[in-house]
Structure formats: structure tokens, C-alpha cells
């Protein structure tokens, strides 16, 4: 049983560009959350998707958007990239029907130059 | 979600038990205590969680005080591979904050030979 998988693992973008990160949740999980982790900091909650809708959102600007597909996979999009967006982006999945445990993927390292 | 307080760093000798404390004095009755760890450059790994009873799994034990204002994560026989940042998180699992984890700075545990 595959856990949470994310792609790509590493990428480099130029300031002002747009990026899309992808996540496949753990089998049986229907809720996907995204986190941003800057170097030396703990992960910060960006937003959460359930039933293809954004259910909760952290303190992130509208440049950060997402999508959830019918198969529960999800994308995180960031527009007009800033140098400060350089971070590890983590996807986490969960399901109330399968208990309260939240599992994380290995993340996508984004470097903005 | 309630705030948690953890020591910045701790050391442990290989083969000995590692006891990581966490204070969560403002925890609410429906909030769970979660523990995750993060090894450098990897996604957070779920360890254990509990509501009010002590919990044990193949990785660790979680001891929650009777008033639920503090807890201790116990790694019974620490190995070098247990060196990581350990996060204690309080979350209203199943409630309005479902799936949203608020990470602090965590405890850097160093296991030495």
C-alpha cells in the first residue's frame, strides 16, 4: 500500500513564474492538506481539500491555490513566485472514516531564483 | 488549537530510553495529542497520538497526565536513526480543525553512541 506520494521531488523556478505540485493521497484517504516548510521552521498549514472543495485555509495569499480531483489526488499551484516561496512543500492525507491519523508525503523542494 | 511547549533540544545515549516532554496546559477536552518526527529533508513521520489514555505502538509510548496538561513521548531503546526533530501537536481531530496541524519548533533529539 503506497503512502502519500508527491511530485516532483525537486524543482527550480524563476521569480515571477508559476508552479504546480502534485499529490496522491494514501489509499482510502479522501482529505488532502498542503503545508509549506521554510528552512529551519516547522511546517505551516496552507489549505485543505475535501470533496473537491477547499475546506480550510491558513494565512497564505491568493497566489496559492489548489485543486482536488475526483480520485482524491490534489494539486498545489503558486503564481507569481517570489524568492520567499522557496521551501519544502508537504502534502498530508487523512480520512475521518479511517481514524484521526494524518500521514505526510516526502515533499517537493521548490527553489525560486 | 492549544499551544504546546517543548524543550529546544535533548540528548540521549544509544540503547537508553528517550523521554521527550511536552506541555499543553490549555488543551481542550476534545483535543488529541499527536507526536510526529522529522528527519532532515524528509516529510514528518507519524509516531503516535492519544486523547487521555496512555498509548503504545511499535515505535513509542505516549504518557498523558491525568489533567491532560502535559505528556511524554518515550522511545524505549533509542538508536542513532532516532535522531530527528520531534513535534508535539494538539489538534481537534474530527472537529472544525480536522486535518490541520499547527507545528511549533519541536525538540531536536540527538542520539549519540
- In terms of structural class, how would the helical and strand content of chain A be classed? mainly beta
Query: Helix fraction of chain B?
Result: under 10%
* Oligomerization category of the chains in this entry: heterodimer
List segments of chain A where confidence is low: pLDDT < 50 over at least 5 consecutive residues.
none
* Main beta sheet strand tally, sense and closure of chain A: 7 strands, mixed
Shape of chain B: globular
Catalogue the unreliable spans of chain B. none
Would you list the SSEs of chain A in sequence order as H and E?
A: EEEEEEEEEEE
Radius of gyration of chain A: 13 Å
Spatial arrangement of strands, main beta sheet of chain B: 1-9-8-3-4
Could you state the order of secondary-structure elements of chain B as H and E?
Answer: EEEEEEEEE
Output the number of helix runs of chain B. 0
Largest sheet of chain B: 5 strands, mixed
Explain this structure.
- The complex is a heterodimer of chains A (113) and B (113).
- Chain A is mainly β.
- Helices cover 0% and strands 50% of the residues of chain A.
- In chain A, strands 2, 4, 5, 6, 9, 10 and 11 form a seven-stranded mixed sheet that branches. A four-stranded antiparallel sheet of chain A has the order 1-3-8-7, with no helix packed on it.
- In chain A, strand 7 and strand 8 (74-78) form a beta hairpin.
- The model of chain A has no long low-confidence stretch (mean pLDDT 94).
- Chain B has no helices and nine strands.
- Chain B has strands spanning 9-13, 18-23, 32-38, 45-50, 55-56, 61-64, 70-75, 84-91, 107-112.
- In chain B, a hairpin with a 4-residue loop joins strand 5 and strand 6 (61-64).
- Chain B is globular.
- The A-B interface holds A 4, 31, 33, 35, 41-45, 48, 50, 56, 58, 88, 90, 92, 94, 96, 100-107, 109 and B 32, 34, 36, 41-46, 49, 87, 93-94, 97-106.
